[in-house]
Structures are given as C-alpha cells and as structure tokens.
Amino acid sequence: MTREEIIQNGTKVYSRPRLLNKNNMHYCPGCSHGVVHKLVAEIIDEMGLEHDAIGIAPVGCAVFAYNYIDIDWAEAAHGRAPALATAISRLRPDKVVFTYQGDGDLAAIGSAETIHACTRGENIVIIMINNGIYGMTGGQMSPCTLEGAKTATTPYGRRHDLNGFPLKVADVVSLLDGTCYVTRQAVHTPGAVRKAKAALKKAFKNAQEKKGTSFVEIVSTCNSGWKMSPEKSNKWMEENMFAHYPLGDLKDTTK
Amino acid sequence: MAEIHGAVTIESERCKGCNLCVVACPCDVLALQPKEVNDRGYHYAYPANEKACIGCAACALVCPDACIEVFRVVAK
Amino acid sequence: MKAEVKLMKGNEAIARAAIRYGADGYFGYPITPQSEVLETLEAEMPWETTGMVVLQAESEVASINMVYGGAAAGKAVMTSSSSPGVSLMQEGISYLAASELPALIVNVMRGGPGLGTIQPSQADYFQATKGGGHGDYHIIVLAPSTVQEMADFVALGFDLAFKYRTPAMIMADGVVGQMMEKVVLPEQRPRRTNEQIARECPWALTGKPDSRKPNIITSLELDSAIMEKNNERFQETYRRIQENEVRYEERFTDDAEYLIVAFGSVARICLKAIEDARKKGIKVGLIRPITLWPFPYKEIARVAEHTKGILCVELNAGQMVEDVRLAVGDKVPVRHFGRMGGIVPAPQEVLDALEHDFHINSL
To answer: If you average pLDDT over residues C225-250, what whole number do you get?
Structure first.
C-alpha cells in the first residue's frame, strides 16, 4: 500500500488532542512538559470535562500552560497553586480543579500550600513535573535536584552537607491522610506515557468523585538545564533520577 | 496472515527536531532532516523509511509538541 | 434573617455582616486582635445556612491566595488579618490588583513594626494607601470608626470591589475591632447564583462553555507594550475611583478656626477634644476621611481655606499627615500629633497638642 492509500483508507489511530490549541508551545525541544500537556488535554476531553475543568498554572516553565489547553485557567503566584485550587474547588464543587506545577514551585516555595492542601484532602489533582531543576530562571538547584548534580547554583554538584538532601515530595504527601492517590510516573517511553495517562485519568476521576487529593509526580527531564540532548537526558533520568524517585503508585486508597 | 500498514504525518513547522520520536520508533521509520530546516531553524523529523511503519503510534506518544498523527490499515 | 440590633465587638460585626451580605467565602488565619472574625464565622457555621465557605488556612499567604482563587471564580470572597499578617499578604494583593479581581481584605491594625504589640495602632496607613505590594497599584481603603461602620463597610467594600474589579480593604484599628457597641445588622441578602456570576462576571472562571473562549486570570504579560496598556487601564480605574468614591465625615467645620484630621477610632477621641475645646472658646472642626484611598484632598483643602492651622492626629509617627500637607500645601500650617506602640491618646492630650502647636492661649 502507498502512503496515500494508508492515510486515505486507514483509521487514524493517533491525533493531536482536540483541546490542545494551535499555539506552538514555548518549551525547549524534547521537554517533558509538552507530553504531559497532551495527556491532560486528552483526559479532559475523554472524560467530557471541557466545560468543568479549571486549571491552575504555576510560576516556572509551565507558567504559560494556559496558552495551550483550551479550558479556563488561573495563573497563581509562585507556589500558591494549591491555595487557589482549594478555594475554587470549595466554592465550585461542581468543577474539577487541578494544579500543574514544577518541583521548584511546588516543593520549595509552595511546600506549605502543597502539604496543607493534601492533608485537608482537597478534592483536587496536583500534578508535579519533577525535573530536579529551576528551568525558567536558568537552571538553578531545586529541592529535588539530585546529590552531585551540577546546576547554576551548585556549580560543583549538590552536596547534602551544604545544600541538604533531595526532597521526595510524593513520599511525604503519601503519609498524609487527605491524599487518596499518590503516584510517580514518567513520560520518556511510549509505555511510560500510556501508564502516566492512566494515572492522570485516575487522579481526575478521584477529583470528580470527591475522593480526596490525588498527587501525580511526573519524573521529567530538563534538557536545557541539564545541558544534555533530549535522548541523553532520558537516559540520565533512567539511570539517576529513577533510583532516587522510583516509579509506581505510592498510595491508593480508592482500590 | 494480516498485514499491517502504517503511516505518519508530521507537522514539520511545529517540530523542534528533538529526536525523541526517532528514538521511540521500533521500526526505524523516522529520521531528522540532515540538512533542511523548518522556518524556526529546526532539523525536523520525517518518515525516511516509510514502508516500515506499522502505525504503532510510539512516535506520536512521546512527541512533546504533538506534531505527529498516525494512521494504520490492517489488510487481510 | 431580618435586620436586627445587637451588642457586639467590631470583629464580630465584620463576620456577621459578611454572612448577611451573602459573601461566598472567607479564608483566614488567626492573629490578635482580629481572631474573632474567624472564630465567629466558625461558630455561626454559615455553610449550613447561606452556603458560605469558611476555611482556616495554613498561613496569611495561603489565605490571600485562596482569596485570589475564589475571586478568580467570580465569588465574593474575603480575608482578615492584622498588621504582620497583612504584610505577608501584600504579594497576593498586588496579584489581585494586577489581575483586576474584586476581593475584601480586613486589617485590624496593631502596633509595629515587626511583631510589635497586640495593642491598637494606625501605622499601616502608608502600606494600605500607597500600594503596599510591588508595582503601581492602589486599593480602596475604608476606615471605620464605629462597630456599625465595621458592619456597613463589608457591603460597601464588596460593592466597590466588584464595581471597579479591584481589591478593597477595611482598615480598622485594634480599638474598633475589640470595642463592643450597638450595631444594626442588615437583612440577609442571598448569595449570587453561579448563573448570575456567569452573567455579571463574564471574566470569571466558571468552566469554559462552548459560547466563549477560555477565561484566563493572570497578572503576567511579557509583551511590554501590552503590559504598559494594562497599567494604563489600571490607572484609569484609579482615576475613576478618585473622582467618584471619596468619602469623609465633616463636623463643626462651618465656623472652625482650627481643623483636626483623624480617622478610625482616633476621630472619636478627637470629637471629645473638639467638644472640650469649644467649651474653652476654641473653634475646632473635624474632617474624618472614611476612604483613606481615595483620599479627600479637595475636601480638606476647601475647609482649610478658612482655618489657621490643621492638626493631624494618628496612632503612628506621622503618615496621613503627608497627605494632609499635599492637600493644603503651604497655605495652612499642618502639625502632627501621634502616639505609637499601642498607646491611645486621651482627649486632653489632643487638646494640649493643638494649643501648644498653634500657640493658642485659651483664657
């Protein structure tokens, strides 16, 4: 069969998500943010939440998330997305509210808002893109930067005696009674993308069904910040990040 | 035995040439343009070996910019 | 609930007035001397009557950002705190102003700087009236001097906030917050429905219907040309507020030879001082700015024309006095009398200051 025949006669098996608009994303080539944006857009569409999903964008690389997925969004002050989400979810319990944050936004400046939203069991989804670095500001150390990793503010590598240990946020929030689902995923291979999508979908369902807080960490790459090609970043992530941030569900009370 | 034919379309202007689809493809269908660049200066991905495509969508799943659409025909 | 007369603290009046206004949400954090606002709301359980959401947040930072979220959804939401807590909220207030969101913030001021004291003060005047957080913005600042005004300004503050899509603040001092007085509470108003909000606040996050594009609440704009336009729009709003919303109280000014300018609880102390002065034959009048921003510059200038001197009395080292000087220039001598650190002056101290500063010999 020719290419034309396949495209004409075949069933389209993969399309650009309908709710992902035509804007070119500002992310660097190979950035994990784009894949997670796609998944969020697909899930909102598949669950019929286009009219009911409200997203909270962070400060960081995903600050412009609202430019790409065609739903209502608020852009929060640095770290405060869970506070906004708390209020909106309580004032509009008929809506499904999610935050989309990086590890700097969520785990450093926003650690208090994160922990308290989780321990209150707000019926929201918290998505954390953990690439272990502040991407937007030029590659500084984040709470989740691995020991030994070189960043703009740890030019000789992170040392726990100087900079403390990398923070395992998902582990922390899994201990809180308000979280119903805590999982750690990645999007570096087709298989991982499929699993991450299933996890995100479960999280959105939990919010819709008022089961408590769902926390989805996506262990990600920052090619520019890590100063590696996208392909090498994925490899480095597999070899280093996954050892400290192992993938899989940490908690699921909905089973 | 059923034969599987696949094809992909790539929005080359949206592509940033990150190479992740090339790596993800199990059938070595895709490659980055060695010389040509798009309007934004990226060596964009294209189906260099399109006959080998099985329409598995691995490339599309990992594409961060959602530039790839996938088609598949199962011929009996 | 019908209108009713009750005896209560200023802080309690804020809470009860918020419920009766039909406020949608309150998010706050305990701090003296205003904790009764949150305590009263928790005790009243308005979520079971009007459906109002009440939440004790983990910090003032979280509180103001919950307010930001609620306001983004088009809801009538508020918080309350006292000076150190309001300092923590300044970033959020700047975001509210920049995102053109309505909200009500109550500051029951205590003495500072730093942790200061829990006793009354008016030392946050600069912070409230000159912006407070980063960037070029103003918020509407209402200064109640009675428990009745504490109650009344909840509705006024919300109404102005929604009219101009800007945060409004009730800036009370600890005296008004803690004092008990008779207060008439208004009739219960219904909370706005989600349909009303979608109609009246077309900018609000309601979930995107097919009939419109996504609503985005953000204060971010990287294109400088657009950001300047945004700023010009904010300034235009502030000009409209300055033209239309100046509020003040004027007492005994017709024949006044001297003028006292004071706000909040201090204005009431000054009224007693004025009464005592008049008994001694010194003709003193009072202007009590009710809106500290917009400030009654023109009104003070008008009254100042036939006076020999103005005394600005405040619970601070001299803050509003700068605006009074801006109002009258060098046409009339302006002096300041203030107590700090939680001390509230007696009427006699005010009268002494007036006589001393303007060399009045009451024989």
So the answer is: 98
CATH class entry, domain A26-252: alpha beta
Q: For residue C25, list chain A residues with Cβ-Cβ distance below 8 A.
A: 87, 90-91
Q: Is the pTM of this model over 0.95?
A: yes
- Give residue C217's identity as a one-letter amino acid code: I
Residue B70 structural domain: 3-75
Q: Chains B vs A: touching, with 3+ CB pairs under 8 Å?
A: yes
Find the CATH number of the domain harbouring B37.
3.30.70.20
Q: Give this complex's ipTM.
A: 0.97
Cα Rg of chain C, angstroms: 21
CATH of domain C4-196: 3.40.50.970
- Give, in degrees to the nearest 5, the angle at Cα A47 between A113 and C192: 60
C92: chain A residues, CB-CB within 8 Å: 77, 80
Asked if C58 lies within 8 A of A51 by C-beta distance, the reply is no
The answer to whether B41 and B26 have CB atoms below 8 angstroms apart is no
Is A91 in contact with C58 (Cβ distance < 8 A)? no
CB < 8 Å to C53, chain A: 87, 90-91
List residues of C whose CB lies inside 8 A of any A CB.
24-25, 27, 53, 55, 57-59, 61-63, 65-70, 72-73, 75, 77, 91-92, 95, 194, 205-210, 213-220
Which of A21, A51, A92, A126 is the best mutation test for C, with the most CBs of C within 10 A? A92
- Residue pair C32/C11 in contact (Cβ under 8 Å)? The answer is no
Q: Does A234 touch chain B (CB under 8 A)?
A: yes
Task: Count structural domains, chain B.
Answer: 1
Q: Is the pLDDT of residue B64 over 70?
A: yes
pLDDT tens, residue by residue, A98-151? 999 999 999 999 999 999 999 999 999 999 999 999 999 999 999 999 999 999
Residue with tokens 């700097």, as numbered in its chain: A104
Which of A6, A17, A30 lies closest to B18 in CB terms?
A30
Q: What is the DSSP string of C272-287?
A: HHHHHHHHTT--EEEE
Q: Is C249-357 in the same CATH topology as C4-196?
A: yes
Provide, as residue numbers in chain B, all residues whose Cβ is less than 8 Å from the Cβ of A32.
64
Q: For chain C, give every domain's residue range.
A: 4-196, 249-357
Question: What are the C-alpha distances in Å from A18 to residues A8, A30, A44, C150?
Answer: 21, 21, 10, 51
Q: Chain A: nearest CA to B72, how far in angstroms?
A: 5
Class of domain C249-357 (CATH, top level): alpha beta
Domain boundaries, chain A: 26-252
